[in-house]
Write a structure and sequence with these properties.
The structure holds three protein chains of three kinds.
Chain A (H helix, E strand, L loop, with lengths): L1 H5 L6 H23 L15 H7 L2 H34 L5 H13 L2 H19 L8 H26 L3 H8 L4 H30 L2 H6 L7 H10 L4 H33 L1
Helix pairs in contact in A: 2-12, 3-12, 4-7, 4-9, 4-11, 5-7, 7-9, 8-9
Chain B lengths: L17 H29 L16 H7 L4 H32 L2 H12 L6 H12 L4 H9 L10 H25 L3 H9 L4 H12 L1 H16 L3 H6 L7 H10 L5 H32 L2
Helix pairs in contact in B: 1-13, 2-13, 3-7, 3-10, 5-7, 7-10, 8-9, 10-13, 12-13
Chain C lengths: L2 H24 L21 E7 L5 H11 L2 E7 L2 H12 L5 E2 L3 H9 L19 H4 L10 E14 L11 H5 L1 H4 L3 E3 L3 H11 L9 H14 L3 E4 L4 H7 L4 E5 H10 L5 E4 L7 E7 L7 H12 L1 H11 L6 H6 L2 H4 L8 H6 L8 H16 L1
Parallel strand pairs in C: 1-2, 1-3, 5-6, 5-7
Antiparallel strand pairs in C: 4-7, 4-8, 4-9
The chains are: A mainly alpha, B mainly alpha, C alpha/beta.
Chain lengths: ~270, ~300, ~375
């Protein structure tokens, strides 16, 4: 069988694919190259240096922005994990009038472009929330977290509901028959089954939240920039090599985290099939 | 598929509606407050021409929408559509070989790893990756330096449309590959074998078996790339120049940029939502026809 | 997602859209005010000061010195045009800033919109140090809301090797368009760019005559294919690297780049037919969470020794007479920094416009950048 399949794999396919792999990693290699290059503007190699990394580590604005981004992502994903999972499970279990509408609204953030969501949220906050709350609510990291929860819960919900369709429907029933209360059935039977999907959805939402520029730009208050906002502002004012150092640090740490996550998933998959 | 609805048999059972409400209400409230109501608000704002913060809102007509259709602003829409379509086509042309190679040629045990390593750049900041293209595409950047060594004159790519297309394609290619892979992975190899037995050439088999079988994947990938690139702000802003205004940039300028016209910006946002919904509707209509026709 | 559920998704979307529209129309009803800026309700941390300023004013040494003197931590956020600053401020994001650095005409606009608090002159030292022409101004009579901190001109900085002879006036941009093709940038500020074009046509920098403004717009449309991008700060690295050979720039930025890179063959020229004479001022917005720290900062910047440093390191022309007297001779004689009287006479200040006129400018600017 493998012989006839191989006759369909056009010979130049491997070459193109390898080429495109190179295309994908080219910007990253370029960033790494220039992060060690001892020159501000020149394209050529002018010597090896760590100074951009040192500059980046001493840069309190960037580190602040990084901290803000992480705070926003952690809180938004945390909240979204809970209410998103509850929503997905609820939608799978119950029927009620308006369910279709609810489902449509729940998955809307996946479809509407970021900028429209950002604009709508800003208008809402500026026009209603702030005046109505008498100044209790201000544009700040809190409003960014609130805005991020919206799309995070959609992503968590869709990943979880995909997994729910694959689940054995009788597990919970079996638990109830064995005398568990509905809450126990939920927490101790359903939740562990859903855990890989929840983690998967959370990871996806986390990365998207860290990477978000538009929604954060529109909904944050002055002074609490997230990392993408800070990077954007520096790109606007010219190309500076310490951003290269920042990118290499970010890429290696994300890659590392990703590798760890994949390894854990691989191990848990093997444990299950064993 | 529905999960069993658990019920208690004890005497003091809480009302049956309690659990569903507790499960569904938090998300509902959040979505209502931060998605539904805001969308309604910007619709109301879009009906007020020339409003800026501090002014009173009095919906008065479709002036903002009419303005978008004027020959001065309509190019912005068409340019966004051009970028979106161009990116979609580029991603399809480039993404299909990679997805096909991984799904069909790479041995099963390595497929996951290869796929994930192709997609890995996606998990790093998209801003930084677009920024890297500045260094590559600058007049004195990496690309032109390399071309210069081979004797080719420098290309003026940065701050023009080609740079934006390259940036957008680069950003969205991994998504396309992921979706196409998911579709191609389910391809029944026996169909290909059967085609070979019936005397089809590889090319014929490709167009008559592979492509029709992966049509849903192609459609889903194209839709995702199209929608995301329609609303893309970063790539046109960083890699584009004085003549690369897109809808997303125009909207941004109305709120956080030089010209402060929240009404016009809201109208543009509504138009963007409309275009995206149209794309989805078109796709579903085509998908419906396809499914009905049968393959 | 199979087709039928996907189709119902579209139906849901339509219903959802109707729901949203219905909700929107029902909401507060017509006649609500969009995003009012209100005075601060609470004081911020008294050791923190947030300023909102141009990129060129950011100087870590300065904030260090200030911190040593007063114990207050300064954080700064950046904007690249006055309009962006106002847009951010009015969207409600300006609530944490205690000091802002608007340009003169923007100060007038902000005063009109009641965004600035009145400065208590008794709390500010060194007002007498200001040069006579800065003691009073047309845009803020008696300096009641603002304290001038710098002034300068807008001009062209170019690479003398690539452009020889170089441009001397705005008109040269059009004349040398072929040579400058795709290697020049203009400022991201529509008053400056439109004003410069109006000047090249022989009109006033601040013209509000619709036909004149339209001519300026059309002239810019001619030039547009040669413009790489509109930017206020990003031209610096590109000019040094050779990607650009000309940029429209503020005198302070241009002089600083030339002084820091003497081997780069750059020259700053003030266009002969006249350009805009700008001055930046420090203001305290009504929403300032820490007015006390704001006054400390203003006093700090008004100190002659500090003003000298600002000119020496950041190359802003100072309006502070006492500071000017302390400047080293080469700086005082730097004609790009302190132009001779004749040149200043030919310059115009940008004056604030009526809302209708601003809208006209904005529409042309959006048209120009959208085309």
């Amino acid at each position: 069988m493998s012989k006839s399949v191989r006759s369909w794999a056009f010979p130049w396919l491997g070459l193109i694919s390898v080429g495109l792999f190179g295309f994908m990693y080219l910007p990253i290699l370029v960033l790494a190259f220039y992060s060690f290059n001892d020159s501000r503007y020149s394209t050529g190699w002018k010597g090896f240096t760590w100074k951009w990394y040192i500059a980046f580590l001493n840069d309190s604005r960037i580190l602040n922005a990084l901290a803000n981004s992480l705070i926003v992502a952690l809180f938004a994903v945390g909240i979204a994990a809970v209410i998103g999972t509850l929503m997905a499970v609820g939608l799978a279990k119950y029927h009620f009038p308006g369910k279709r509408l609810y489902q449509g609204t729940a998955y809307l953030p996946l479809i509407i472009p970021d900028i429209s969501i950002a604009v709508a949220t800003l208008v809402f906050l500026a026009a209603i929330a702030i005046p109505l709350s008498g100044g209790l609510i201000q544009l700040s990291l809190g409003t960014v977290i609130a805005a991020h929860v919206v799309f995070c819960l959609s992503y968590v919900a869709i990943v979880v509901s995909t997994r729910l369709t694959d689940l054995n429907p009788h597990l919970e029933e079996a638990a109830l028959d064995l005398g568990a209360t509905p809450d126990q059935a939920l927490m101790q039977v359903l939740l562990p089954e859903l855990m890989p999907a929840i983690v998967s959805g959370c990871l996806l939402a986390f990365v998207l939240s860290l990477d978000d520029f538009l929604i954060a730009s529109f909904t944050t208050g002055g002074g609490s920039s997230t990392l993408p906002m800070e990077i954007f502002s520096r790109i606007r004012t010219g190309v500076k090599p310490d951003i290269n150092a920042l990118s290499v640090v970010l890429i290696t740490s994300t890659g590392f985290l990703f590798a760890v996550a994949e390894y854990l998933r691989y191990r848990s998959d093997r444990k299950r099939s064993a | 598929m529905t999960l069993p609805i658990a019920t208690r048999t004890e005497a003091q059972a809480p009302p049956a509606w309690l659990q569903p409400v507790l499960m569904l209400a938090p998300a509902a409230v959040w979505l209502a407050l931060l998605l539904v109501i805001p969308t309604g608000l910007i619709f109301q704002l879009s009906l007020v021409p020339g409003i800026r913060p501090g002014q009173v809102v009095n919906p008065s007509g479709l002036d903002n929408y009419i303005r978008i259709l004027q020959p001065d602003y309509f190019p912005v829409l068409t340019r966004s559509l051009f970028f979106a379509l161009g990116t979609t086509i580029a991603c399809l042309i480039l993404g299909f070989p990679v997805a096909y190679w991984i799904a069909i040629k790479v041995p099963k045990r390595w497929q996951n790893l290869v796929l994930l390593s192709f997609v890995l750049p996606l998990w790093t900041s998209s801003l930084l990756r677009s920024y890297a293209w500045i260094t590559i595409l600058r007049p004195t950047g990496v690309l032109n330096t390399l071309l210069g060594k081979v004797g080719i004159p420098a290309l003026d790519i940065l701050n023009r449309e080609p740079a934006v297309l390259i940036g957008m394609t680069y950003s969205l290619l991994p998504y396309m590959v992921l979706i196409l892979y998911a579709s191609l992975e389910k391809l029944d190899r026996r169909l290909l074998e059967a085609a070979a037995d019936l005397g089809a050439t590889p090319r014929q088999a490709f167009w008559r078996v592979t492509v029709p079988q992966s049509l849903t994947g192609i459609a889903a990938g194209a839709l995702l790339v199209f929608i995301t690139s329609m609303g893309d702000f970063i790539n046109p802003e960083i890699l584009g120049g004085a003549s690369s205004m897109t809808v997303a940039r125009l909207i941004y300028n109305q709120f956080l940029g030089a010209t402060q016209n929240w009404g016009f910006g809201s109208a543009l946002s509504m138009v963007l939502i409309l275009v995206v919904s149209l794309a989805i509707a078109l796709l579903l209509k085509y998908g419906d026809r396809n499914a009905a026709g049968g393959v | 997602m199979d087709v039928s559920s996907a189709r119902s998704l579209t139906r849901r979307q339509i219903m959802q859209a109707c729901l949203a529209i219905g909700t929107g129309l029902m909401l507060p009803g017509c006649g609500w005010t969009l995003a009012e800026v209100r005075p601060a309700l609470s004081k911020g941390n008294k050791d923190e000061l947030s300023i909102y300023t141009w990129e060129s004013y950011i100087d870590p040494e300065l904030t260090e010195t200030f911190h040593t003197q007063t114990g207050i931590n300064v954080t700064a956020d950046i904007y690249d045009s006055n309009e962006t600053m106002l847009a951010t401020f009015q969207s409600g994001k300006g609530a944490i800033y205690s000091v802002i650095y608007p340009s003169d005409y923007k100060v007038a606009e902000m005063i009109e919109r009641k965004l600035l608090s009145v400065l208590d002159h008794s709390r500010i030292n060194g007002i007498d140090n200001l040069m006579p022409e800065f003691q009073d101004s047309v845009y803020d009579p008696g300096n009641q809301h603002s304290m001038p901190i710098s002034w300068g001109t807008t001009g062209l900085i170019y690479n003398t090797e690539a452009l020889n002879p170089g441009p001397e006036d705005w008109e040269d941009l059009w004349r040398m368009q072929a040579k400058l093709n795709r290697k020049m940038t203009l400022l991201a500020d529509f008053r400056e760019v439109m004003g410069a074009t109006l000047k090249s046509l022989g009109f006033s920098y601040n013209s509000t005559n619709p036909s004149e403004v339209r001519q300026a717009y059309q002239k810019l449309v001619q030039l547009k294919p040669a413009i790489t991008t509109f930017t206020t700060d990003a031209w610096r690295d590109r000019l040094l690297a050779g990607d650009l050979i000309l940029a429209m720039a503020y005198s302070a930025d241009a002089v600083r780049l030339i002084q820091e890179n003497p081997d780069a063959n750059l020259r700053y020229v003030i266009p002969a037919s006249g350009t805009s004479l700008w001055s930046d001022a420090m203001v305290i917005p009504v929403t300032s969470p820490n007015p006390d720290a704001a006054y400390e900062w203003i006093n700090f910047m008004m100190q002659p020794s500090v003003a000298v440093e600002v000119t020496r390191r950041l190359f802003f022309a100072t309006p502070n007479q006492a500071a000017y007297d302390q400047l080293p001779l080469p700086l005082r004689n730097n004609r790009s920094l302190f132009p001779p009287e004749a040149v200043i006479q030919a310059c115009e200040r940008i004056i604030p416009l009526e809302p209708k006129e601003t809208e006209m400018y904005e529409q042309y600017w959006t048209k120009l950048t959208s085309g």
